[in-house]
Design brief:
The complex is a heterodimer of chains A (307) and B (300). Chain A has nine helices and ten strands. With 307 residues, chain A is an alpha/beta fold. Chain A has two domains: 190 residues, 3-Layer(aba) Sandwich (Pyruvate-ferredoxin Oxidoreductase, domain 3); 84 residues, 2-Layer Sandwich (Alpha-Beta Plaits). Chain A has a six-stranded mixed beta sheet, with helices on both faces. A two-stranded antiparallel sheet of chain A has the order 7-10. The longest helix of chain A is centred in the middle third of the chain and has 17 residues. Chain A is globular and about 65 Å long. Chain B has one domain: 3-Layer(aba) Sandwich (Rossmann fold), CATH 3.40.50.970. Chain B has ten helices and eight strands. Chain B is globular. The chains are: A alpha/beta (307), B alpha/beta (300). The interface between A and B is large, with 46 and 49 residues. The complex binds thiamine diphosphate, iron/sulfur cluster and magnesium ion. Thiamine diphosphate binds next to strand 3 and helix 3 of chain B.
Chain lengths: 307, 300
């Protein structure tokens, strides 16, 4: 059985990528399960999608704990909550959408697993990166033929019109071709036997009196414990030398209460929670807030720490 | 607007009462309005929230609120508010809580509830003169379930080749016709106008409604960073009149001097793409413009 896990962000086409791969497997005559998984979070939040495919009926259910292939957007690798590396084996293939090379990721991650990268073109829309990943993973399985991948794409995206279909077709096929040297690299694994099955790590709540056990929230503003800053792919940065301290603009418009005002009247951005909507960048009258890619911002931060 | 503490932008609250870390989309115009409203209302409030995007604000064990919050079905938030108000009144009467610990009962719902499923419960609440503040964040559709059209949908909103063929229901007029204490439209892109109206609403008793047009990047299909600009265009094109009702009178609080063509607002949103592609639907664009012009012709 093939166990394939995709990690991406809400709204970036990861769900569709999983679906596409699942449909292509199906057209090859496989039994298939494909399911996205996300919580109440929305656009930008880390999410995952699962594809299982087998020649035999699939009895496994739920999330994939031991993947044969992990497909991931590189911004999510350092995010513990995304669980990108959870349950991987030495032969689990990692396909990373990244501007950096395979070699960089090999040394950075120091894993036995084969690591491949797919480079998004400059300024590419994240959804097209997902489409390329779908094509690449189809090739890595070694069992999906090009014509079935194309048919799957027509099934899934045909209703969106010919222009969009064409654009996606090109990207999916580019992804497919890019992995020609690695065709069939992904190893199938046996479904876990019942005796080897390990319970997921859930929390057992003892039965308590209803006023204790009911889902009543007793604290105020507990939402601040949720780090929505992880959603961000762009980071707004205030250039204080250009700031005219009209804080009521950025601080009122920030939907997330993530811009506070310090004692000198300058806006301060809370990066633990800023989701990267960039309203402040668009609204700042003196253009004192600029957007930089989050990956670049984190790289600069790391450099600063090392110094 | 003489006796307001919000004379200038500088008077807007610089500390924020609503917690960060909510699951609303990046760039949500509804959350923008809610945080501005909450900064003024404060924590002496009980929110009664009808099902919709914003019920995700408080998911156990997380809440952005500093006060109480209760979840109800889509149709029944005003009924929930009645129960809370009654309970508070009993507690006050029996002296279990002192008057300074009284709370404002606030209904928070989307347009799906406010314009549609919740109208019956709202009507009952107004009939009984319920002392509550209704906040409707209006993203013109069922945002939480994928932006299907609601009774608050704008012309031609929902996806599909021709969109939603109807026109938006006039919730403002529906409320005002029943002579409640206060009705106002607001938008997060005009925070000063919003602040003054919330300030006024908090000083009144009885049934009060605030409708906040809420640009929704996910449902309306635009880049989140454009959210506030699109809100401002809604005001400048006259699509979203900022107004209030009090003591039998409707007054407009911000009349656009020279209204921009409605097209400027429509063409920047993916939900209206069918009006421009594959060919411009001149007849439909003219019809929408005409309706707006007719509205404003009656105002002055
Ligand atoms: C009676 C009922 N019908 C349908 C639903 C499913 N539902 C949950 S949220 C929602 C959309 C609500 O729309 P709106 O009030 O505009 O809020 P928004 O999602 O846009 O924030 C729907 C239809 C429900 N909860 N209850
Ligand atoms: S779907 Fe729209 S209204 Fe709902 S949280 Fe997202 S942006 Fe806000
Ligand atoms: Mg709605």
């Amino acid at each position: 059985m093939f166990n394939i896990r995709f990690h991406g962000r809400g709204g970036q086409g990861i769900k569709t990528a999983g679906r596409l791969l699942g449909t292509a497997f199906f057209l090859e005559g496989y039994e298939v399960q494909d399911a996205p998984r996300y919580g109440a979070e929305r656009r930008g939040a880390p999410m995952s999608a699962y594809v299982r495919a087998d020649r035999k009926p699939i009895n496994a259910r739920g999330i994939i704990t031991h993947p044969d292939l992990v497909v991931v957007d590189d911004s999510l690798i350092p995010v513990p909550a995304a669980g990108v590396l959870a349950g991987i084996r030495p032969d689990t293939v990692l396909l990373i959408a990244s501007h950096e090379d395979d070699a960089v990721w090999r040394s950075r991650l120091n894993l036995k697993s084969p690591i491949l990268t797919i480079k998004p073109s400059e300024g590419a829309d994240p959804a097209s990166v997902s489409a390329a990943c779908a094509g690449a993973s189809a090739r890595l399985t070694g069992v999906i033929r090009k014509e079935n991948l194309i048919e799957a794409l027509e099934d899934e995206l045909g209703k969106l019109g010919p222009a969009l279909l064409k654009a996606n077709l090109d990207t999916v096929l580019q992804g497919f071709e890019s992995m020609s040297a690695h065709q069939g690299l992904v190893r199938q694994s046996e479904a876990i036997a019942l005796i080897d099955y390990q319970k997921p790590e859930w929390i057992n709540l003892p039965l308590e009196a209803s006023e204790l056990a009911s889902a009543t929230i007793q604290g105020a503003q507990t939402s601040v414990q949720v780090r929505t800053g992880l959603w961000r792919t762009q980071r707004p940065v205030v250039h204080y030398e250009d700031c005219h301290r009209c804080w009521w603009v950025c601080s009122s418009f920030c939907p997330d209460s993530a811009i506070s005002v310090n004692e000198e009247g300058f806006p301060v951005i809370d990066y633990e929670h800023c989701k990267g909507c960039m309203i402040c960048v668009a609204q700042c009258p003196s253009h004192a807030i600029v957007a930089i890619p989050e990956s670049e911002a984190q790289r600069l931060e790391r450099q600063g720490e090392q110094r | 607007m003489t006796d307001t503490r919000f004379a200038r932008m500088k008077d807007l609250p610089s500390t924020h009462w609503l917690g960060a870390g909510t699951p609303m989309c990046a760039g949500c115009g509804g959350l923008q309005a809610l945080h501005q409203i909450y900064d003024i209302l404060g924590n002496k409030t009980v929110f009664v929230n009808a099902a919709g995007c914003m019920t995700l604000l408080s998911i156990y064990p997380f809440t952005p609120f500093r006060g109480s919050w209760l979840y109800t079905a889509m149709g029944s938030a005003p009924a929930g508010a009645q129960g809370i108000r009654d309970a508070l009144d009993i507690l006050l009467e029996q002296k279990h809580i002192p008057p300074e610990e009284d709370l404002t009962t606030v209904v928070l719902s989307g347009d799906g509830s406010a314009y549609g499923m919740g109208v019956s419960a709202t009507s009952g609440a107004i009939d009984r003169g319920l002392d509550f503040l209704y906040i409707c964040y209006d993203n013109e559709g069922y945002g939480n379930t994928g932006q299907q059209f609601s009774a608050g949908a704008k012309t031609s909103t929902s996806k599909g080749p021709r969109g939603y063929p109807g026109y938006k229901k006039d919730l403002f007029a529906l409320w005002a016709a029943n002579k409640p204490a206060y009705v106002a439209t607001v938008i997060g892109a005009e925070p000063l106008d919003l602040a003054r109206k919330i300030e006024k609403a908090t000083q009144l008793k009885g049934s009060r409604l605030i409708i906040a047009l809420s640009p929704c990047p996910t449902g309306w299909d635009f880049d989140p960073k454009e959210s506030t600009e699109i809100g401002r265009l809604a005001v400048k094109t006259g699509v979203w009149p900022l107004k209030e009702y009090q003591d039998g009178r409707v007054s407009h609080t911000k009349i656009p001097k020279e209204r921009l063509p409605v097209e400027d607002y429509l063409k920047v949103q993916g939900r209206f793409a069918h009006l421009f592609e594959p060919v411009r639907n001149e007849a439909m664009l003219a019809e929408i413009q005409q309706r707006i012009d007719d509205y404003w012709a009656d105002v002055v």
